[in-house]
């Protein structure tokens, strides 16, 4: 019955999936296992309140059921109930200190709480236990990158890429760290590979477009930033970047069009930044646009 529910999930038949899971709960001898399985299905479907209710029922039957504790912590994190999530995940790790799943879940909660030291401590433990797991290295690299520790990030991404050469995410993020260090040619190489592997990721296209701009490859940069906006029409980063490029190309009218879009997306800081550029300060409608930047 559980396998049939999983097949229904794979084909997108949610009603049939949960009908089968309800039968699993009704008939299973191990109630903690059954409730946890249905709870996890709710978690995957983004129904986190329902997931927590099922995990709570599982834990009523077995308060030390690690699987339910970790999954409950994950759902609490999705609901931004971070302190509660941390408490649950701490309990899971008291029961199983070496649980990589629990450590990664807690690291993600600590990231949301701004606890970089705690996040890295958890990820160090995970990588130490599984040094050849590319996914864990990428997670730690991402923590270093967000903290501005780009050399450490590049080292982790590099090892992850050695283990998984077609990891477009790691290539893209290493490209960002290389860009931050001014290693533009190396960054472009990584970002070009990443764009081939993950052509639908707008953030890769934006970063690649920005790098092409800084390297002076202006037509290619414009093409890539246009592609990024097609992929994600809500990306304010893309419009900011394309607006700067239009100014470099001496196209102030097109830059102003990007300013208007930024204002429609309520990115007033981005619009103000572009309007400060010499090429836009004397534009006919610049005063009106500046007023819209400061409501």
The portion of residues assigned to helices is: over 70%
How many helical stretches?
Answer: 19
CATH class of the domain at 200-295: Mainly Alpha
Instruction: Describe the oligomeric state of these chains in a short phrase.
Output: single chain
Give the CATH superfamily of the domain at 200-295.
Tetratricopeptide repeat domain
Pfam family, one: TPR_16
TPR repeats: 32-65, 66-99, 134-167, 202-235
Keywords: Repeat, TPR repeat
Protein name: Tetratricopeptide repeat protein
What does this molecule look like?
- With 295 residues, the chain is mainly alpha-helical.
- It has a domain at 200-295: Serine Threonine Protein Phosphatase 5, Tetratricopeptide repeat, CATH 1.25.40.
- The chain is 79% helix and 0% strand.
- The protein has 19 helices and no strands.
- The protein is elongated.
Q: What's the SSE blueprint?
A:
Elements: H1 2-10, H2 14-27, H3 31-44, H4 48-61, H5 66-78, H6 82-95, H7 100-112, H8 116-129, H9 134-146, H10 150-163, H11 168-180, H12 184-197, H13 202-214, H14 218-231, H15 236-248, H16 252-264, H17 268-275, H18 278-281, H19 286-293
Give short descriptive properties of this protein.
single chain; 295 residues; mainly alpha; TPR repeat; Ycf3; elongated; Tetratricopeptide repeat protein
Summary?
By secondary structure, the protein is mostly helical.
């Amino acid at each position: 019955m559980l396998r049939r529910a999983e097949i229904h999930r794979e084909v997108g038949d949610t009603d049939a999936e949960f009908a089968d899971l309800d039968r699993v709960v009704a008939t299973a001898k191990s109630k903690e296992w059954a409730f946890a399985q249905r709870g996890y299905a709710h978690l995957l479907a983004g129904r986190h309140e329902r997931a927590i209710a099922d995990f709570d029922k599982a834990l009523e039957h077995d308060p030390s059921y690690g699987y339910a504790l970790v999954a409950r912590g994950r759902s609490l994190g999705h609901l931004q109930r971070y302190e509660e999530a941390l408490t649950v995940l701490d309990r899971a790790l008291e029961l199983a200190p070496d649980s990589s799943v629990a450590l990664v879940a807690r690291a993600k909660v600590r990231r949301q709480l701004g606890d970089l030291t705690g996040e890295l401590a958890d990820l160090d433990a995970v990588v130490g236990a599984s040094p050849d797991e590319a996914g864990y290295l990428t997670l730690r690299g991402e923590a270093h990158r967000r903290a501005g520790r780009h050399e450490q990030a590049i080292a982790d991404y590099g090892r992850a890429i050695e283990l998984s050469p077609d990891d477009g995410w790691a290539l893209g993020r290493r490209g960002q760290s290389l860009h931050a260090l001014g290693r533009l040619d190396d960054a472009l190489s990584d970002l070009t590979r990443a764009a081939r592997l993950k052509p639908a990721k707008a953030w890769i296209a934006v970063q690649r477009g920005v790098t092409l701009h800084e390297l002076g490859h202006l037509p290619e940069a414009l093409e890539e930033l246009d592609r990024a906006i097609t992929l994600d029409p809500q990306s304010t980063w893309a419009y900011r970047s394309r607006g700067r490029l239009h100014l470099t190309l001496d196209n102030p009218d097109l830059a102003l069009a990007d300013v208007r879009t930024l204002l429609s997306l309520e990115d007033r800081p981005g619009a103000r930044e572009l309007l400060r550029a010499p090429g836009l300060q004397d534009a006919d409608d610049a005063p009106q646009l500046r007023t819209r930047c400061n409501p």
